[in-house]
Amino acid sequence: MLQALGVGNDAADVYQAMLDHPDHGVDQIADVCGLTPTQVHDCLDELGRLMLVRASSEHPGQMRAVDPDIGLADIVARQEAELAARQAQLAASRAAVTRMVADRAQHRSTHGERLLGMDAIHRRLERLCRTAHTEIIGVQPGIQRPDDLSAGRDHDLAALGRGVTLRALYQEHARRHTHIAAYAHTLLSHGGEVRTAPTIPQRIVIVDRAHALVPTDPADNRKGALHVTEPGIVTALLELFEQAWNTAVPLGTTRPDDPEAGLTDHERELLRLLGTGLTDEAAGQRLGLTDRTIRRQVASIMERLSASSRFEAGIKAAQRGWL
């Protein structure tokens, strides 16, 4: 019975023995309980902490048991006070959590929620893909790492299996990377749509036309992302995606690259970017290519147009109706 009040088995036996034999010393109590004197002393320490024993006035150096109606009632009273304090603490904690959740919900609805690091981004994408009902849209500039593709593969395929529409937009040069091409063809084989274009918007993921994730730093998407649910912002991102999607080439098809017919889409975009005043480096970043590749492609265009400068190449391309 005393165990329910936090009294150990041996201590409970010692307490009962002291009540039954108030004149017994430690050695006698040890004999009654089948314990060693050292064990009895340990039990007395425990009973003392519970205030079930006190120093005897009649037998100096000995302890006496406090009457159960007083000692046990005091234990119950202390436990009730501790429980009341704990309940008050839990109530305060619950109120603090409620305020925090409300503040975060208000923050998300007003400004969007910041996700720091790739783990946080992957967790949010996993949750959004699991709950997607109608559509998942993705814009993937640059070259995705194999582990990033692997992190989303199962969720993308599961969404397609539920009948969710999935559209993915990649840059043109992604076709030359085996792991991206393989992933794209996997999406195609399960009913997804994949297109490529020379230049595309920054990285965007839009789910059910209600949730959008955009990088906090477009130069390094691994730093974090912003989860946006504001209808106006999501709609603007959707319009940006649709503009790029409508001019992109479906994966599995190509456009003629006949040099006599004019410029390829990629070359046309390159000249357009350079014509706006971008440097080779800036144009390369937009197209996902190195400076060396940009210079080589510009040289090829100039040679085909018999132009001695980039400016002359632009004029001749426009005169021929290539731009």
Automatic annotation (TrEMBL):
It comes from the Bacteria. Residues 256-321 form the HTH luxR-type domain. GO terms for biological process: regulation of DNA-templated transcription. Pfam families: GerE. One of its GO terms (molecular function) is DNA binding. This is LuxR C-terminal-related transcriptional regulator. The lineage of its organism: Bacteria, Bacillati, Actinomycetota, Actinomycetes, Kitasatosporales.
